């Protein structure tokens, strides 16, 4: 019985129900009894549908992961994508002694921290406010409007940001009417973080409420009833019923946000920054883009990218662990 | 007689949720006999104050969100001098279409706009093909190796090779400056894949079994039975993909060197960064420098227009898609 072959799958099945190939897909014997050959024989058409997508994942998702070895190998444009020869930690040492790297590293931490601090809570507050609107049509209108920026290209968001902050833009008009001097928001390093976070909130806050609103609808109405009977006022209801009800969502999103901490707003920074604002605006991802793609130092940039990814991984893993230990919610 | 109003609002009759949801009974609702309205069920003064503040805040949110759009729209129709003077707010000042004419006369703009349409159509088609096939395979719960196939996809949601290895790969495959650089590297969005898989899983298995008993192959089942039943999710996925491809700019920016290959988003990006001024054919350079900012507004309007036009109709699909993805993924 142990020597089964592809041409003869029947004897191997022992006392199992009807012949495999003619049976409908569902309702056959447990998966554990099947062999790979049998599965292939029966489901080859299904597997054939998976070939192209699998090839896509292997080539365009997994190969680049392996491609990170060029961080430790000398790479020549036009040569092998996996590099030419091992050079050990040369590129790592290079960026660790690069003052620009530490500058962009600090900027990344700043921008990431500010984004997390401001862009994470806003959707929660907004969702709670939406939830209090009693008129359905009104609620839907407000939601639709606030989702809108999410659907626009980030280039358009950047364009709108530059227009709003231009010398003749509404913000400077308002400043002028208050008797203030106009500010060149996009040229001054001191303003970049504010501009970035503001634009980020404008773009993401509305859409960010969706998952919270979904979580809010799952809260059992009886809990509010019970809280009211216990004499809880509106704030205590929010504090003791609503917030605990959406806590799993909050924590999940917080962990995910922490995971993207290091990659903060790469495209938006790339669109909004300029050499004048590099001192505060240049982040790891934009720096590695410039060194890698623009200056062709692929190995060096790959080493920085790997470093960024490792930090991101450590951050998300520790956030996950912390949350599992303290509040019992985790991604995995 | 069933009033049409009823059927329109079917989803809307649910009681609201959250604190205060049961506070105001529907107008005309009679109190059920035997229940006493407790005082703590009546909205207090504090609550009404809160509702007032809430209305104010949300009005602020709406205004803050819409104002930039309206301002850009007003600018695009305004005279340059009035913009410079900071007079344009919500309404065009010195209404004219000169800037639109300049942009419309720019060949690069049209070519890039055409490119965007082309890339969006081709990329969406390829993405739909791959995503549908894979989602269908993954939806077969008793398929041997299904866990592995799902894992292959889901793992990439959390780990990515990073910018440089991707760039090196796409370049070494000779895809630079070809359509394929826009299409292939982002052909499957795992999020969309999971939404679609969840939908396929929710279809009754009996229909497919019936098809198979009638002699349909797996391909036939997918084409003749599953897809016709999945029009809603297919439409949603087409929207998801086409909006994201329409909006994308970075792939083109990364992999294309030539201006005539760029999508319109990169055209706009170049205006913003000021790398190139608008190269309006037929307009004098003097006129050009004068209207540079205005060209930005016009290009923003024209780029956002298709998305803004479909937005009101498709928004709910996006919302339900995200919900589905969040629950299942």
CATH C-level label of the largest domain in chain B: Mainly Alpha
Molecular shape of chain A: globular
CATH topology of the largest domain in chain A: MetI-like fold
CATH topology of the largest domain in chain B: MetI-like fold
Largest sheet of chain A: 2 strands, antiparallel
- How many helices of chain B? The count is 15
Radius of gyration of chain B: 27 Å
Number of strands of chain A: 2
What's the overall average pLDDT of chain B, rounded?
80
Instruction: Supply the CATH architecture of the largest domain in chain B.
Output: Orthogonal Bundle
Biggest sheet: strand arrangement of chain A:
1-2
Give the count of structural domains of chain A.
Answer: 2
Largest sheet of chain B: none
What's the Cα radius of gyration of chain A?
A: 27 Å
CATH architectural designation of the largest domain in chain A: Orthogonal Bundle
CATH superfamily of the largest domain in chain B: MetI-like
Estimated structural class of chain A:
mainly alpha
Using the coordinates above, name the CATH class of the largest domain in chain A.
Mainly Alpha
């Amino acid at each position: 019985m142990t020597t089964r072959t592809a041409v003869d799958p029947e004897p191997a099945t022992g006392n199992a129900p009807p012949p495999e190939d003619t049976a409908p897909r569902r309702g056959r014997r447990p998966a554990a009894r099947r062999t790979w050959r049998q599965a292939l024989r029966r489901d080859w058409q299904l597997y054939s549908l998976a070939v192209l997508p699998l090839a896509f994942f292997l080539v365009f998702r997994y190969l680049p992961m392996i491609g990170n070895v060029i961080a430790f190998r000398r790479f020549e444009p036009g040569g092998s994508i996996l590099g030419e020869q091992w050079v050990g930690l040369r590129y790592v040492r290079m960026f660790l002694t690069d003052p620009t790297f530490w500058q962009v590293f600090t900027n990344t931490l700043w921008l990431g921290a500010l984004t997390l601090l401001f862009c994470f809570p806003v959707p929660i507050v907004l969702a709670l406010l939406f939830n209090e609107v009693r008129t359905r049509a009104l609620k839907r209108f407000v939601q639709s409007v606030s989702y809108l920026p999410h659907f626009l290209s980030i280039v358009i968001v950047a364009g709108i940001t530059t227009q709003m902050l231009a010398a003749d833009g509404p913000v400077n008009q308002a400043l002028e009417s208050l008797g203030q001097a106009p500010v060149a928001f996009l040229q001054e390093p001191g303003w970049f973080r504010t501009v970035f976070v503001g634009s980020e909130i404008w773009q993401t806050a509305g859409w960010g409420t969706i998952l919270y609103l979904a979580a809010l609808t799952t809260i059992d109405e009886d809990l509010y009833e019970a809280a009211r009977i216990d004499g809880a006022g509106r704030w205590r209801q929010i504090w003791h019923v609503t917030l605990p009800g959406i806590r799993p969502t909050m924590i999940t999103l917080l962990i995910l946000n922490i995971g993207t901490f290091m990659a903060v707003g790469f495209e938006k920074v790339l669109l909004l920054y300029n050499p004048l604002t590099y001192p505060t605006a240049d982040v790891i991802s934009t720096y590695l883009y410039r060194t890698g793609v623009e200056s062709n130092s692929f190995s060096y940039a790959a080493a920085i990218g790997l470093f960024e990814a490792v930090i991101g991984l450590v951050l998300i893993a520790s956030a996950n662990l912390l949350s599992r230990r303290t509040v019992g919610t985790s991604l995995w | 007689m069933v009033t049409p109003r009823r059927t329109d609002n079917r989803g809307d009759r649910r009681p609201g949720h959250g604190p205060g949801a049961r506070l105001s009974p529907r107008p005309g609702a009679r109190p059920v006999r035997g229940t006493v309205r407790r005082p703590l069920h009546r909205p207090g003064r504090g609550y009404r104050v809160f509702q007032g503040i809430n209305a104010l805040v949300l009005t602020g949110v709406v205004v803050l969100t819409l104002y930039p759009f309206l301002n850009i729209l007003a600018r695009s129709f305004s005279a340059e001098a009035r913009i410079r003077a900071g007079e344009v707010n919500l309404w065009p000042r010195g209404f004219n279409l000169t800037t639109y004419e300049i942009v419309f006369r720019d060949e690069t703009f049209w070519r890039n706009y055409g490119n965007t349409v082309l890339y969006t159509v081709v990329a969406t088609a390829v993405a739909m093909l791959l995503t549908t096939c894979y989602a269908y395979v993954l939806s077969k719960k008793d398929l041997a190796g299904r866990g592995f196939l799902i894992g292959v996809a889901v793992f990439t949601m959390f780990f990515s090779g990073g910018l440089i290895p991707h760039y090196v790969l796409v370049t070494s495959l000779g895809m630079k400056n070809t359509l394929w650089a826009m299409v292939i590297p982002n052909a499957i969005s795992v999020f969309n894949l999971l939404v679609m898989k969840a939908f396929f899983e929710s279809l009754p298995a009996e229909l497919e079994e019936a098809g198979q008993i009638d002699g349909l192959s797996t391909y036939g089942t997918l084409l003749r039975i599953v897809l016709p039943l999945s029009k809603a999710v297919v439409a949603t996925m087409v929207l998801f993909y086409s909006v994201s491809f329409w909006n994308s700019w970075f792939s083109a920016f990364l992999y294309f060197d030539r201006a005539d290959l760029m999508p319109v988003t990169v055209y706009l990006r170049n205006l913003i960064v000021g790398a190139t001024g608008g190269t309006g054919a037929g307009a004098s350079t003097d006129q050009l420098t004068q209207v540079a900012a205005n060209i930005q507004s016009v290009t923003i309007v024209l780029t956002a227009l298709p998305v803004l036009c479909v937005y009101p109709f498709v928004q709910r699909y996006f919302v339900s898609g995200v919900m589905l993805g969040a629950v299942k993924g």
